[in-house]
Amino acid sequence: MSTQQHVHAGPETGDDGPVAPPPGSIAVLALTRGGIALGMRLTEALPGAVLHGPAARLAEHGSRTTALPEHCIGFAGPVRELIPGLMQGAHALVAILSVGATVRLVAPYLRDKRTDPAVVAVDETGRFAVPIAGGHLGGANALARRIGCLLGAWPVVTTASDVLGTLAVDLLGKELGWQLDASHDDLLRASAAMVNGEPVALVQEAGRADWWQGHAGGRKGPLPPNLERLEAPSALDPKRHRALLWFASHHPRLPCVAGFAGPVVRYRPPPGNAGAIGEMADETAASSGLAPPGGSAGRSSAGKLFLVGLGPGAVEHMTVRAREAIAESDTLIGLTTYLRLISGLSAGKRIIPSGMTEELARVRQALEMARAGHRVALVSSGDSGVYGMAGAAFEVLSEAEWTAGADVSVEVVPGTTAMIACAALVGAPLGHDFCAISLSDLLTPWPLIARRLAAAAAADFVIALYNPRSHRRTAQIEETRRLLLALRRPDTPVALVRSAYRPEQRVLISTLGAFDACEIDMQTTVMIGNSRTRACGGFLVTPRGYGDKYDLEDGRARPGERGGRSLGGGLETWLVETRSSAESDAELARRFGLPVEYIAAVRATIGGYPT
Predict the structure, then answer these.
(1) Contact 58, 74 (CB under 8 A)
(2) Which side of the chain, N or C, has fewer Cβ within a 10 Å radius?
(3) pLDDT over 90, % of the chain
């Protein structure tokens, strides 16, 4: 990387034309302002990435920022003159251009899928990452998924073996470090048999037992159903099997499979990688989804349980870690509605959907599979710890006396909660203290819910209501309104947000006295303002109190106030006034709405607190 220079202005070119990228680097090509900005993000996150862009655009970007990435190369002249050097010098090219433009630029330099570099097109908004060439052999599919995790983009992978989640015949040896021995024609025919679901024989005489775990990004679970394991090549059925995959440390002799006209693809593991065949997984147990992948039915393998919060639903609002956890998992379990949200990320994985009220069954199944060696993502919308599956999971784990470092590792992957996502669509209704209350009385007694509502209203919290109304539970939201109207004004602002950031999104601003409960269902979050919440240009805002302390026009502290010090009615002032008051403890408790025991303790304390 030492040959690269930091660009501030002017073209960076060699004596004979554009500077070639360092060997093994990732070349990021961007031409527009938006593309340059996106390219900057990628060069910061992708090791070995070098940004190539018009020198004038890079210089223009540098004039608006304090620093450019360490590795930038500016060029002058037609971009087509840059492409040959990028295609030959870099192992991957990320073009922040349309698919059509990228295809036209790289097409003259594509030769063979076995030698073409990875080429990925990314749109300028960073919503899609599309492998153009070098799919799985060149690493374009994996790079597109990585870019997806970094940018929140959707990896548009179309390679059949990846989409179908089956074995990539031509990639297997490369991933495992095994020597591949097959003609190009045999590879094509065997690959076609795999992706078409035709019977393919597998004979393993050497190689590590858990090879399937190391293949296709660490996939686990049973082998593809059309891959039939045989004890020896002599068991091959020439009329049935369409191809043979043969793992052997020696060079097998073709007479062993005389009479077989199908393709034979041979893999030779390196020395020291053989001899584990006695531990091959029992296929019957593996097909149940509960046997340790790549190990015998009774053999333990460390599994992992991811408790993943998917956020509000749109891919761009999912955290990078959530996408990575899904990519690392071999099994996805969750409510059918939520699994649909990540259908584009679930290719090749076991999908186990379930319905409402089946939370404990979901947890038990996820835990059982993780204990069998699988990597399981138990998904929730929003954040898994806020009315999601993390609570149920830890209840079950606690009952089972699970401890960190036990047979299953657990990772909670946070996500944007529904109330945070919905609040963003209506302004800043949660700008000051707020709380969340679920109206579902399936697990919580209604009197307890009502007490919490009353307490929150009395304390002047903004209240976010979850699970407000289902097909069966229709009265809870009306009872909530009746209760809150006894404690708050009818003109209190209310926001109703349904299916935030999904195609069916709906946003409505109303009031406590006027909102229509019929507009509400389980996909709706209801946010009820406090006494200071107000409408502002079609949005809602709950002031935090800046206007009480400062003049909002010039930012100066109001008379009697000091910046960085407690408000005039802050703790220090209140302590002095409470201790010097002639009122009784009971009278002060009623005035402030506080426990009389607390007032008594405050007045019994000598002195104040350090400031």
Answers:
(1) yes
(2) C
(3) 28
Where is 92: in which H helix or E strand?
strand 92-95
With contact defined as beta carbons under 8 Å apart, do 134 and 119 qualify? yes
Q: pLDDT band for position 337 (50/70/90)?
A: confident
Q: Which residues contact 154 (CB under 8 A, 6 or more apart)?
A: 127, 128, 129, 148, 315, 344
**25, two tokens:** 């680097």
Classify 495 as helix, strand or coil.
strand
Is there a contact between 524 and 469 (Cβ–Cβ < 8 Å)?
yes
How far apart are the C-alpha atoms of 183 and 108, rounded to whole Å? 26
Q: How far apart are CA 118 and CA 90, in angstroms?
A: 9
* Under 8 Å between Cβ of 310 and 342: yes
Under 8 Å between Cβ of 526 and 465: yes
Q: Compute the mean pLDDT over every residue in the chain, rounded to the nearest whole number.
A: 80
3-class DSSP assignment, residue 491:
coil
Check: pTM over 0.85? Answer yes or no: no
**Cβ–Cβ contacts within 10 Å for residue 555, how many?**
9
Q: Token digits for 74?
A: 């500016």
Residue 303 contacts residue 372 (beta carbons within 8 Å): yes
**Which amino acid would we find at residue 455?**
A
Backbone angle region of 441, left / alpha / beta, with phi > 0 → left and psi within -120 to 50 → alpha? alpha
Rg (C-alpha) for the chain, rounded Å, is 31
Choose among 68, 74, 77: nearest CA to 10: 74
- Residue 170 makes CB contacts below 8 A (sequence gap 6+) with 136, 137, 180, 187, 191
What is the pLDDT at residue 338?
A: 86
By 3-state DSSP, what share of the chain in percent is helix, strand and coil, each rounded to 5? 35, 20, 45
